[in-house]
Design a protein that fits this description.
single chain, about 110 residues, alpha+beta, three-stranded mixed β-sheet, two-stranded antiparallel ribbon, about 35% helix
């Protein structure tokens, strides 16, 4: 299945789950519960910029309240998200650039 089809299914899955859980997802759900054609797709990983196995572009970005970056929303509602580390050519950062250039939607998770 192509990444775009998986992303479409993912956003529907998140919306359905959101009505059940009020938009609060357990980390175990995000790691284990999203499947397509009996294939589990992890939605979050050990790093803030997450690219599941087999994907070219990240599927999600995440901010933790105890993280090293000052991610957040500007006063006009725009998300400011820091690249990983200081190397703009790191694989994760290049993935974010590619998502931006291709207008690929990402999921943003913020810990509570």
């Amino acid at each position: 299945m192509f990444e775009t089809e998986i992303r479409s299914s993912l956003f529907l899955w998140l919306k359905q789950r959101e009505t059940q859980n009020g938009g609060i997802f357990l980390r175990t759900e995000l790691v284990n519960d999203f499947t397509i054609n009996n294939n589990r797709i992890t939605l979050i990983g050990p790093t803030g910029i997450w690219t599941p196995k087999g994907f070219e572009i990240p599927i999600s970005i995440a901010t933790t309240s105890k993280g090293p970056y000052n991610d957040g929303f500007s006063t006009d509602g725009i998300l400011t998200y820091k690249y990983r580390g200081a190397n703009p050519n790191h694989r994760d950062n290049l993935g974010l650039k590619k998502a931006y250039l291709n207008r690929t939607p990402l999921v943003y998770f913020h810990s509570v």
